């Protein structure tokens, strides 16, 4: 039987607070300054000095502005770091708007296919409700960007620059989701009415044509052929004519994207280590690259990231950036805020508990560009963010090793750094399919 709060209980709580000599002082501080400012321990800044034993020079940070494309910025940043080294172009950027266009176009088709696949289920089913909650959004995962590049290539930012709607995406997202939900009504009705497959395909084709028009007006229509004109850091002039997005990728990045694999750390009972996982209904390109995660211990997770940094290559990673993070100073450290001491409450939970109970998931993707090794062990990590140069140290953050343990969930590494047993598992094991709402399906 449910029990209500009694007057005696409230009286006891009030008496306990009145007996605490620090209560009124803390009440004034917290109520006027806020929880974070009052609980901040600025001694953390000393430990998080931005000096690293391995420190890659990756140039100026990018700025995703008011959009949720961090995963895309971070992935393209790892590629531009490589391109900049090869072609002496330190301040060069790849077009995030180009990949954004094709990602949203493909996500629309992916949504339509999932609507049709679940059309026999009531709208009250959890899967249908999950689909309709967010038909598409800015977020994504590494494998999803690879799927876009493998199909459409990439281009320099100078060829397809940002627009109002790419940099401030809320209007586009709400308008596109309005259309997708309306189209879901139509598609489900067509299935319910036992409409022929040909007529359903024709209806979907019309819908995709409208999506293409909506995206072209909002983001600009993607180029199919272009000239790449630039001056390198030594002021030498270059022009490369008649490129396509695919030929540009092949010539200027020339990565075999299948070499780069997703490594996760999810210490929950349902995901044994050293096995692979995918997530139902997670993706963008139908029949494109599958999202596939290899779950490893945190020790292996960090060792793989360090190997790639030691080889001179930056590392895409996903984390829960809002936890114990000071945005303006650019510090991510479990010691930065001490809410336990402030409130005399034990707030501690394990990483597995936070994942299982909805307290944490991957919310942001950035790039590891350095690490400080002391006696061979990492103490802090250098992080390239995509929030512009006005936060952190000209846009770069410092992450404590303890923060990585607790709030980092994913890195992408070249599989050459995997030990043979894990490499074989990643390449050959059929992944366990997780539910659509699993935290490892969160979009950064």
UniProtKB/TrEMBL annotation:
UniProt xrefs under Pfam families: Peptidase_C1_2
InterPro entries according to UniProt: Papain-like_cys_pep_sf, Pept_cys_AS, Pept_his_AS, Peptidase_C1B
Protease is among the record's keywords: yes
SUPFAM superfamilies hit by this protein: Cysteine proteinases
Subcellular location: Cytoplasm
Keyword set includes Protease: yes
Keywords recorded for this protein, A-Z: Aminopeptidase, Hydrolase, Protease, Thiol protease
Domain of life the protein comes from: Bacteria
PANTHER family documented for this protein: BLEOMYCIN HYDROLASE
Family, similarity comment: Belongs to the peptidase C1 family.
Protein name: Aminopeptidase
Protein source organism: Levilactobacillus fuyuanensis
Top-level taxonomy: Bacteria, Bacillati, Bacillota, Bacilli, Lactobacillales
